[in-house]
Amino acid sequence: MRDGERRPGEPGAAGSTDLADHLWKFRIQYREGRDPEKILRAALKLGVELFGGVEGCVATIHPGAVEARIIHDASVDGWWDRMLFAGFLRGEKVSVPHEMMLARIRRHGRMWGALALRSPNANFHWDARQAFSTIGNLANELIDQADLQRIREVRARVDRKVMEQSHPKHLSYELLHGIRSLTAYDHSAALLIHDADLGVLEVVAEQIAWRKAKGENVGRKFPLKKTLHEVLAQPVVRGFDRNGDVWTNWTGGDPTDLADLLDYDQSPKPGVSAPPEGAILCASLITRSGLLGVLKIASMHPGSFCAYEVDLISQFLPQAAVALQNARRAETLERRMIDAERKHAMADLARGVSHDVNNALGAVLPLVQQLLDEVEHGAFDPQEAVVDLRQVERSIQVCRRIFGGMLNFARGSARNPSDVALAHAVDSALLIFREGFERRGVILEVDVAPTLPSLFAVQADVEQLLLNLLSNARDAIGPGDRLTIRAEASAGWLELLVADTGCGISAEDLAKLQEPFFTTKPNGHGLGLAICRSITAQLRGQFDIRSAPGAGTRVRMRFPAGAGEDR
Q1: 364-to-3, 356, 391, 423 alpha-carbon distances in Å
Q2: Which of 111, 189, 534, 536 is the most exposed place for a label (fewest CB within 10 A)?
Q3: 59-76 CB burial, b ≥16 within 10 A, e <16
Q4: What is the residue-averaged pLDDT of the chain?
Q5: Under 8 Å between Cβ of 74 and 48
Q6: Is residue 235 within 8 Å of residue 284, measured between CB atoms?
Q7: How far apart are CA 431 and CA 272, in angstroms?
Q8: Which residues are registered as beta bridge partners of 490?
């Protein structure tokens, strides 16, 4: 061997000084890294460069797995002893070949993976193995920093949702999404809210990781026994692992029937082959008012969670509980405002359609009186009577449509979301207003196809949105004006347009319409558009109103198709 050549298994010619220099450059380059796998690939590349002419891989092991999984392979033939890696990571006594070096990678408080190098002609000695372990230790340090930064980012994202006063459902799913990015649970997560009046836990948000979908258990309620309520009243995180058909609590001596309660997917729907839950984390959400709810995180394999996840979730509990409580309070106030507006709208609708009803009934009374007089005086003409009775029938049908629409609006107070056909909601609203528009000579254009994608929403809310907008249009248009209602679907969105060619709104008043309680109507209360914006926001939609004096008003709304489908 010539001077200056490197033997297989020896670090670069400068020895420890050369290694320190490479490690320093590696730290500088990746100290802001956010991708742990990228850091590991770079660490492996550094090992290849330092030990020359070798091949390597990055292997990980999941709790419950028999052998390791290769997530990055820099070898010629792609063959690695996965059983050897698995035993090495489980702390078993394994015989590492002389031509191979392994460095353990710890993450999330447990043995997570390994860096592996090999060279067929090498005989790696103690100093080389120590040097390679040093590379692994630095990768550990950089990955810990990346994970810590990710925790900060998730907390900032939740804080931002709180500042935006997000709807409780949106905030709930943001929380579940953030927890998944931190814990990498592979089964599911759910948020259950405690209903103190009914004594139940209700699933309000759920994500299924193993099939990348929203959960199907939203809305399910589970009775909460007094003994379990007392257990959950403590703001702690509990961990359970499945041992056969029995749950064991590895965080304390609390009863395992809490895990039995939360293991509610033991009998999945027909045709759905759901993997069983092997590990559960249960976190109580506590406020000054008591138990708010429970955060549940599940993984497929026992041992998937440890003290790291317990500590991590514990950091989020106070913040999550306060944020959800505030959001639910805001939702309650908003619901009361919408209910109050609904009652006011009924009175407003009654005043608005009274002319239509009077006109319809006003045409009936003379015809009936004439028919009665002709019968009494023997002047009854069957052919003329048919014409008169058809006019009576038309007038009564008008009244029936108007009253039927008002009754539907008054009764449609159920808060259960469902698939809402936009065309049906438009027809329901026009039952009340169509006669008045036609009587006043308004040109009505409706283009809402029944084949459009549905909205997952509360039917009454969508109808109230339309009724408020049509009521505003009714007060702004007259004979010869045009009212257009149009809807279309595009790129996963539903767009609804309500536009008129009426008197329009001044720029000064239009700016004030953003504020609740501002109105230009003598008998108005200024909540109609505020309610429209609120309902649109609940559906994660966009609301835009534009107007100019003499040019009319245009309201455009966009909703994600299937909006609200966070199940």
Answers
A1: 117, 13, 8, 32
A2: 111
A3: bbbebeeeebebebbbee
A4: 79
A5: yes
A6: yes
A7: 43
A8: 493
What is the structure's pLDDT at 484? Answer: 94
563 within 8 A of 457, measured Cβ to Cβ: yes
Contact assessment for residue 222 and residue 201, using Cβ atoms and an 8 Å cutoff: yes
pLDDT at 164 over 70: no
Structure tokens, 452: 């459009």
Per-residue exposure over 359-393, b if at least 16 CB sit within 10 Å of its own CB, e if not: ebeeebeebeeebeeeeeeeeeeeeeeeebeeebe
* pTM of the complete model: 0.55
With tokens 């340090």, the residue in question is 141
CA of residue 214 relative to chain centroid, distance: 8
User: In 3-state terms, what secondary structure has residue 506?
Assistant: coil
d(Cα 365, Cα 402) in Å, to the nearest integer?
A: 18
Residue 252: burial class (beta carbons within 10 Å; 0-12, 13-18, 19+): exposed
Cβ atoms within 10 Å, residue 357: 17
The answer to whether 516 and 530 have CB atoms below 8 angstroms apart is: yes
Comparing CA positions, the residue from 19, 89, 6 lying closest to residue 53 is: 6
Q: Which residues, 6 or more positions from 556, have their beta carbon under 8 angstroms from its beta carbon?
A: 495, 496, 497, 543, 544, 545, 546
pLDDT digits (tens, 9 = 90+) for 347-405: 565 655 665 566 566 567 777 777 887 888 888 788 878 877 877 776 677 667 666 65
In this prediction, residue 134 has a pLDDT band, given cuts at 50, 70 and 90, of very high
Rounded-to-5 percentages of helix, strand, coil across the chain: 45, 20, 30
Are 6 and 124 in contact by the 8 Å Cβ rule? The answer is: no
